[in-house]
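@channel sequence for tomorrow's demo:
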Amino acid sequence: MDLGECPKIHDLALRADYELASKTKDYFYDIDATEHLEAFIADCDRRTTAAKQRLAETQEELSAEVTEKANAVHELAEQIGQKLARAEALGEEGMVEESVKLMGEIDELRKKKAVAEQEYRNSMPASSYQQQKLRVCEVCSAYLGIHDNDRRLADHFGGKLHLGFITIREKLSDLKKTVEKRREERGASERERSGGRRHYVGGRELDRRARRHREAGRERDRDRGKERERDRDRERDRRRSRSRSKSKREGSREKSRGRDRERERESRRSRSHRSSSRERRRD
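structure tokens (generated this afternoon):
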């Protein structure tokens, strides 16, 4: 997913400082992680609910019996897609026997799916069966079609987005087991350290500090950009000034040469005129 730029500061030196400091002090970052992942999953669940509502409004409503048969096809297809993605991953890791075993299970599921599809087809008119019936993935809120082939489903269940949401949900489930106790420990630790006043810097404050850090960096970049632009303008003005001075000097030299040529022509005409006058006097 395109989540944009991370609001945190990513710096190996800061990470090393934190790892060193965390040996002597508990910073309770697992609580921040829990809150962050809860917001992330809540957003995904809202998209899932909205997608289901959209499908309920746009897709032709099915009877309870047909809906049950369609869900059976969907569930078998999802199992095939999940196992196929897992079998391919095991094959890439060199675990051939486990991969072959999963492929055998997939063949059995395909037979069951074929039977379920036939029952679903028989319960609907031929014209309606050709319409794509969608459902929403409960893990990552993506759309899945009842006519999707095994390859398409394997790509979905083995894809980074789906697997990423699985990892997030599993991590959040683990964090929730201890988060209440950890919150109590954090409160007691802060009260003891500050004499009843809380100076804990949580995730939101860290986000604000990170934003200020990035904004200050962008401001510095803008200032440097403006300074470079001013330098370019000054250099351009200097080049233009030098070019104008050179043009003036060349123009002045050209005018001087023109005056010299005119004086030379005038001198020749004068000499020619005097010579002609002497010749007439002799005659």
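heads up for whoever presents: The longest strand covers residues 134-136.
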